[in-house]
Amino acid sequence: MKKVILALFALVTALAISPVALAQNYDFTYTDASAGISAFGVLDVSGTTAISGTITYDSVTYALLPGSATPPAYITSPSGAIQFDNQVYPSAGPNGLLSTTGGLDFANATNTEDINIWAGAFDGSNWGGSSGPGPYNFWVWTSGVYRPTSDAGTFALTQVPEYGALSMLILSALTLAGGFFFKARQSGSLLAT
Q: What is the pLDDT, as a whole number, of residue 183?
């Protein structure tokens, strides 16, 4: 019976820390000094899909719009101005990589402004074409007008360390070890060795 309780405790511990492993947090920056654009934000990424996040640009914070249930399908933003896919490839290259066609889309609370960031450059016939991934693009759409845009910026994605899961794992291991030592001490088997 006691072994079953210990096994259940171990199972509950494993299940408690597993949701943390499903999504990873990242900080990111977008910079294009020539266009005077600088933005920063956070992303929660599950697999290769950004599932939530924010960006701050011109002292305004925008929320990541939800992507497709079947990535990498394109979604049209509520404003109707931008198609996006929220695909992020954190392990591609030293600074991560965004999709070369859809990228990330952020909107303000009233969905009257969109910010779209994606990889690639204009190849003479379309954006994000054969020349991508190149410099990153940053477009801002406000009430039917694109304002300061950039197609020559840099994007850097930095993983945020997740200490909660590691702390929980260590605490659980110490608890189990303490339980074994306490039980061994009570039965006298610890002294017999």
A: 66
Q: Which residues fall within 8 angstroms of residue 132, CB to CB, at 6 or more apart?
A: 100, 101, 119, 120, 121, 123
Whether 117 contacts 97, CB under 8 Å: no
Q: How is residue 141 written in tokens?
A: 């759409």
Q: Where are the domains of the chain?
A: 2-18+162-192, 23-159
Q: Where are the alpha helices (DSSP H) in 33-148?
A: none
Q: E strands within the chain?
A: 24-32, 37-46, 49-57, 60-64, 75-76, 83-84, 88-89, 97-98, 104-107, 113-119, 136-142, 145-159
Using alpha carbons, select from 33, 58, 59, 40 the residue that is nearest to residue 156: 40
Round to whole Å and give the CA distance between 117 and 100: 10
Predicted TM-score of the model (pTM): 0.69
Output the pLDDT for position 15: 57
Helix H segments across the chain?
A: 2-22, 163-187, 189-192
